């Protein structure tokens, strides 16, 4: 950054108050297929959703994968149509990227490992305006600006409606670039997951069936600690925890310990632990083909299944996994429902 440039967060002050109010609402998370169904076919249910939002008690926040998958629509008209419905129902609110959420969870896990007591992440910390669904943003003020001009810009620019609109993003961002980047990401995922599943299946094959599952989950959790908790050591105040070497030793003992040692830190990382469970499930089923869509399904699940009140999915495999083979959503108070019919039922119940 140039010397003298002032950098401030894009959203602050009243924006934080509004996001905090949104976090207290009944949050219903929809996967991309549900959004498409509501926009194109189930118009009566879409109207029920609008009515629910008008009560001021319900919100349908979007997410990084929900926004990017708008570009899978075949043309500009359909992209705009789906995005417009998203704008109506989400009120400009999105979940933050999973990498951001995982980093926050990792800070809590490190606190737990060091003997601290934490209660979890409040939802206002992981919700944002749509402009920040990919990353937190700053406003950079040149040193040549006078204070009055700078204060006015900082106050007025964040109020632009475009910063709270999926449709604006879908209409303005070059679709070819987004689709090319998305295809490359999806292909890498398929390649890596196919190799991981094959390698994992071969390694645990000699084990008993129930032991295979425990081993695969343990490996995923060890990966999570190394990937997210270890990096947080460098930024943690050593005056609180002692030396960095001492902190690293705490993490090492967890990694080398039994699976029970992971329970406490993983309990405060529900989104990351849900990811571990899903990946372990995928790796113990080598007969199932890996699809490009799997990446986005997982991204939807580890946000909605951990931090929303309801997660609505049309994917039967994911629904079964989250309701029958994984207890994290239920423990978090998230109800998993299947398809538009399931969504209609929860809209009528108001439970």
Overall description:
With 351 residues, the protein is of the alpha/beta class. It has one domain. It is built from 18 helices and 8 strands. Strands 3-2-7-8 form a 4-stranded parallel β-sheet, sandwiched between helices. The chain is globular, with a radius of gyration of 22 Å. The model has no long low-confidence stretch (mean pLDDT 88).
Tags for this entry?
single chain, 351 residues, alpha/beta, four-stranded parallel β-sheet, 18 helices, globular
Care to give the gist of this entry?
The protein has 18 helices and eight strands. With 351 residues, it is of the alpha/beta class. It starts with 5 loop residues before the first strand and ends with a helix.
By secondary-structure content and strand pairing, the structural class works out as alpha/beta
Q: Major sheet: size, sense and barrel closure? A: 4 strands, parallel
Q: Give the distance, in angstroms, between the N- and C-terminal Cα atoms.
A: 50 Å
Total helix count? 18
Q: Ranges with pLDDT <50 over ≥5 residues?
A: none
- The total tally of domains equals 1
Q: How many individual β-strands?
A: 8
H and E string: EHEHHEHHEHEEHHHHHHHHHEHHEH
Shape: globular
Gyration radius, in Å: 22 Å
Helix content: 55-70%
Strand content: 5-15%
Strand order, sheet with most strands: 3-2-7-8
Overall mean pLDDT stands at 88
């Amino acid at each position: 950054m140039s010397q003298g440039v002032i950098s401030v967060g894009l959203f602050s002050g009243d924006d934080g108050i509004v996001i905090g109010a949104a976090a207290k609402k009944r949050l219903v998370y929809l996967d991309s297929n549900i959004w498409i169904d509501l926009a194109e076919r189930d118009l009566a249910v879409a109207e029920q959703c609008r009515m629910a939002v008008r009560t001021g008690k319900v919100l349908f926040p979007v997410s990084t994968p929900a926004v990017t998958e708008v570009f899978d629509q075949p043309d500009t008209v359909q992209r705009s149509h789906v995005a417009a419905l998203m704008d109506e129902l989400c009120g400009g609110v999105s979940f933050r990227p999973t990498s951001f959420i995982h980093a926050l969870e990792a800070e809590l896990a490190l606190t737990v490992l060091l003997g601290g007591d934490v209660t979890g992440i409040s939802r206002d910390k992981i919700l944002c305006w749509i402009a920040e669904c990919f990353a937190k943003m700053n406003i950079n003020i040149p040193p040549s600006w006078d204070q009055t001009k700078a204060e006015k810009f900082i106050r007025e620019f964040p109020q632009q409606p475009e910063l709270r609109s999926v449709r604006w993003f879908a209409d303005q961002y070059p679709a070819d670039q987004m689709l090319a980047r998305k295809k490359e990401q999806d292909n890498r995922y398929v390649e890596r997951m196919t190799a991981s599943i094959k390698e994992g299946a071969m390694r645990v094959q000699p084990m008993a069936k129930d032991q295979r599952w425990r081993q695969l989950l343990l490996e995923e959790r060890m990966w999570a600690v190394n990937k997210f908790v270890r990096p947080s050591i460098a930024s943690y105040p050593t005056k609180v925890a002692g030396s960095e070497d001492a902190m690293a030793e705490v993490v090492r003992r967890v990694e080398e310990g039994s699976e029970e040692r992971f329970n406490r830190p993983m309990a405060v990382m529900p989104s990351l632990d849900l990811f571990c469970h899903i990946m372990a499930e995928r790796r113990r089923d080598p007969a199932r083909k890996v699809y490009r869509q799997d990446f986005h399904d997982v991204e939807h699940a580890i946000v909605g299944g951990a931090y929303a009140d309801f997660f609505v999915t049309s994917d039967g495999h994911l629904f079964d996994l989250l309701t029958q083979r994984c207890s994290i959503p239920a423990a978090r108070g998230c109800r998993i429902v299947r398809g538009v019919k399931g969504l209609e039922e929860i809209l009528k119940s108001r439970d």
